[in-house]
Amino acid sequence: EDRLLRFRSWFAIKQIMDKFCPDIIHINSEWLVGYFGVMYARHRNKPCIFTFHTMWEDYIKNYAPFVMETVSRKIGRDLVKFYLKRADYVLAPTPRIAEKVREYGVEAKPALLPTGIASCDFQIEEERCDRVREGLFERFPNMRNKKILLFAGRVAKEKNIPFLLSVLKNVNRRLPEQQKAVLLIAGDGVFLPELTTLIHEQGLEKDIFCLGYVEHQYLAYLYSLTDVFTFPSKTETQGLVTLEAMTMGLPVVAIGELGTKDVMQG
Question: How many Cβ atoms are within 10 Å of 54's Cβ, its own excluded?
Fold first, then answer.
C-alpha cells in the first residue's frame, strides 16, 4: 500500500482513461493520483465525485515530523479542501465527517454513504477455527489460557497503538495471575519496527504479540477466537474494523472520536 505515483505517469494514465472513456470520475485518494483524476475530469469535461475519508490534518505530522504541527495541519486541510472545492458531488462516510466539510468552509453538502462490509467475508469453518487457534498458540505459547485483546489494522502512528501498551499494563495490574490478558496485533505498516522496540523497552514482549499482515478471511477467525477488540485510534473517519468485530459478536472497546463514534453509535 501507499505506492507513489510520478508526474510522468500522467501521459500513460490519460491514454488509459481515454481508451476506457469514463462517464464519471470518482476521486477516492488524494495526492498525485487524485490530482490526476481532477485534472482529467476538467480537461474532458466529466463530472467529478470526491469521497472524503481521510483526516489528513491529523496524519501529515506522523509522516513529516520535521514540519511544525500548525503547518502540517494547514497542509492537510488545504489538501482536502482542494478536492472538496473541485468536486461536483461530495461523499462522506459518517455525519461527523460531513460536519468537517462545513468546518472547512466548503459550501458543498455531502451525501452520507457509509462503507459496507460483506457478510460473506465473516463465515467461518469450525474445523479451520481449531487449526487457527492451535497455530496461534504454537507460534505464541504465552497466549494460551489468557484473555486475548485484539487490534487489527494498519500499524501506523495515527492509529495510536502505544496507548494500548499502557492499557494492557493497567488491566493486568487489576487481574489475578490466572486471568492475565495479552494483546494480539494483526497488521503491518511503517510503524511496526518502532512499535516492536517500544514493546521490548517496556518489557511486554511476553504479553504483546505482532502477527504482521494477515489476509482478510483469516481476520474473521481472529475475531472469533479473541475476547475483546480494542481500537485506540482518534482520527478514524469510520473505523470499519470495529463494525467487523461486532458483526462477529466480539465486544469492542474503542475511543469515541469522529467516525468511530458514529459507526459504534456511541
Answer: 19
- 9 close to 17: Cβ distance less than 8 angstroms: no
pTM for the complete prediction?
0.76
- Which residues is 181 bridged to in the sheet? 147
Helix, strand or coil for residue 232? coil
Instruction: Calculate helix-pair angle for 126-139, 216-225, nearest 10 degrees.
Output: 80
The DSSP letter of residue 181 is E
Question: CA-CA distance, 181 to 168, in Å (whole number)?
Answer: 7
Q: Which residues contact 147 (CB under 8 A, 6 or more apart)?
A: 175, 179, 180, 181, 182, 227, 228
Strand positions, DSSP E, the chain: 25-27, 48-51, 89-92, 111-112, 147-152, 181-186, 208-212, 228-231, 252-254
List pLDDT tens digits, range 97-127. 888 888 888 888 899 988 877 777 778 888 8
How many residues make up the chain in this entry?
Answer: 266
Q: Which amino acid is at 214?
A: V
Position 249, amino acid: G
Bridge partners (DSSP) of residue 253 are 230
